[in-house]
Structure formats: structure tokens, C-alpha cells
Amino acid sequence: MNDTVAACRFCGSALETDFVDLGSMPLANNFITRDKLDKPEPHYPLHVKLCTKCLLVQHNAIVSPENIFTDYPYFSSYSAAWCEQARRYALTAKQRLGLGPASRVVEIGSNDGYLLRHFVELGIPVLGIDPARNVAEVARAAGVPTETRFFGAAAARDLVARGCAADLVVANNVLAHVPDINDAIAGLKLVLKPGGVFTAEFPHLLRLIREVQFDTIYHEHFFYYSIMVLERILSRHGLRIFNVEELPSHGGSLRIFACHQEDPTHAEEPGLSRVRAAEEEAGMDRIEAYAGFAARVKEARSALLAFLDEATRRMAKRVVGFGAAAKGSTLLNVCGVDGSQVDYVVDETPAKRGKYLPGSHLPIVGIEAVRRTRPDYILILAWNHKDEIMRKLAYVREWGGRFVVPLPRATVLG
Ligand code: TMP
Ligand code: ZN
Q1: Rounded distance, CA 21 to CA 336, Å?
Q2: Closest-approaching ligand to the CA atom of 223
Q3: What are the respective helix, strand and coil percentages of the chain, to the nearest 5?
Q4: Which residues surround the ion ligand 2 when the cut-off is CB under 5 Å?
């Protein structure tokens, strides 16, 4: 059960250097129902390594993707900002790539169809691929054709044979999620028509390191990418990046644009050299840039525990969490926070309500609990939605309630 890989999942070199070891953790999205509270909970090592040969940061646990993704509690459409970003993306892609009724857009990890539905509205044929049955059903109900399967070279060959090669392939927040990265990128290369464009979004490792976002490290995320490493991976499979955009999502993401290596139509754009330069300036081409991270995680953890101790034990204040996202699970578990420090966690996702967070077993409740219980502090676990959450809960100020962000260092806001 607790097996680990010894070699880099991309280049095969021995994984000997630590990035950070977060100990033994339950799966971050494995919310617990009441009847399972007293049952044993599977834990897996969450030990993140740096491959010193290719500089790919990756955890070494063997966790079956079927365990994580078959029933997935994450519905992209619940975030307003996310949906707006998707709508704008579809419009721009249509214009820039000249997509029309004879084109096809394939999305890997298409979730509930939050993105493809906009292409459908624009009259462009689409196909979604997602292994999670529950989200794929929602997508199909919304008119987005979706196949429930894992993506890789075999799936790509099958799609091409059925005439489903793509003019645009989208892979948002999935490059981190596929343990066999070589098979997935080989699949992308196969399914992309000559002259086609591939775009992908993923959280930027530079931001993770700078802002100590250790809570975004969990088993679902096998890989943590810099642009320099991703360029190396794509290039091995005959693809090249020609542009990069920086996005605010998930604490700082990159959106790459890539094409077949031999495609002459896309000249390198300034966005790419900008991000390359930022990484070089941060020294990410050298092993030393990765060395201090574990110590900074320790400091962040101590600061959060000191705040919680001071607030709850010495001042008898009540603290609640907001946002039962995977990063919230991870933060609470890595810091060893439990019900003696945080009363409950608010989340508006209907499927999460009434369940308990993995590991910490904090109860997940609806937003109305806040008015009823008048907590002193709201710990913003979903800090990537900080502004939206603070606007929504502005009324806690009526009773002197205040907001706290946990990272890069626990801070009580204004
Ligand atoms: P995410 O960071 O992965 O998008 O997850 C954010 C979590 O926070 C998700 O479970 C939904 C929840 N949430 C609310 O319940 N209400 C809100 O207003 C926002 C912004 C998030
Ligand atoms: Zn490697």
C-alpha cells in the first residue's frame, strides 16, 4: 500500500534529494461521511523529491489514480471567477485560432464541462475526456459530449482512429495529476492535428516556493512545474512552447501555448522569455533554489500553531475555517490542527456539507453557521478566493470577527 517510486517519473534518474517531507497523509479530497468516522483511514507518504538530473519536483508515493479520480468532489463550475476565465478563454481561442464548425476542441480533464460549454455555444465541436463519472455526467447533461476514461497514448490513438484529432487540445490542472507523464504527453502529441495548438494551465512552482504554498502539495499533484522543466518534457515528445501567460488562479498559475516542434507558424512570444527570465533570476536552474523550502514550511507551521494556541487557549477565542478544499485538508493535517483549535469548516459545495475533512475530521457546515455561532476568527483555508470570501462574510465585523490568512505566515487581516 505505502509503496514509493525510486526513480524520476520523467527521466528515470534516482530520486535522492528532498524538497519537503510532509509525512504520512490521507488523500486530501477524501471527505469522510459520519458512519466512516471511526474506521481506519488510509494514509500514504507525502514526500516530495527533486530530481537533480532534470529538476522535476515530484512526490514519490504510488497512489492509484482510480483511487483519487473515479468519484471526484471538485466541480469547477462553483467558482465564479473560474467560469469567467473559461468564457474569455473560449472567445479568444476561437478568434486567434480561427476555430469554426469544422474544427474540434478536445479537453483532457474536462470536469463538469465548465470550459467546453462555451465552445459548444460558439458552434465549435468539442469532446471532453474525464475519468470521474460523477462530474462527466453533469457535463453531458449540460450538452458537452464527454468520455469517462483516463487519457494517455492508447486513448489518443483511439480518438484519432475515430476521427477525433484536435485543432485545440486543452489540459487545465491535469499535467500535475497524471503519474505517467511521458504517456500523457505522448498522447497529446498524437491527438493534436498538424498545425494544432495545445494549451495547459498549472500552478507555477516559482510561486509555490516564494509564497510557501505547501498546502497545494497533496497526492493528486504528482508534479510541480517550472517552465524550464516543462519545456524539456514537451520537447522530448516533439512539442514546443511558444507563449506563456501568467494567471492569478490557484495562487499563481501559468498558461502555456504549444505546437508541434516542426510547426513554423508560431514564433516565440515575449511572455515565454519573461517567465524563463524570472525563473533564471530565482535560480531555478540550480539545485540550491530548492534547498530552503522545507525550513520555511516549518516556520509557517509554527506561526500558525502559535496563533491558534494564543487565540484559543490563552484568549478563549473561537476560530473557524472557510473552504474545505484539498489545500485546507493538507494545511490542517500538516500542522496537526484539530477540533480543539478550529470548531468547523464552512463550505457551500452541497456534496461536501455534512461530511468531515480527512485526517483532522473537522465537520463541514453550511455558511449559515457563521451568523449563528459568531466566531472571532475566520481562518481562510481557500486563500486563493480570499477577496470573494471576505466580501461574502463582511458581516462578521458586526461582532468584531476578523479574517486570518494562514500563508506564507499566519496573519490577522486589518
Ligand atoms: P478551490 O480553491 O479548489 O477552488 O476550492 C475552494 C473551496 O471553497 C471549494 O470547496 C468551494 C469553497 N468556497 C465556498 O464554499 N464559497 C465561496 O464563496 C468560495 C469562494 C469557495
Ligand atoms: Zn528527472
Answers
A1: 15
A2: 2
A3: 40, 25, 40
A4: 8, 10-11, 13, 51, 53-54, 56
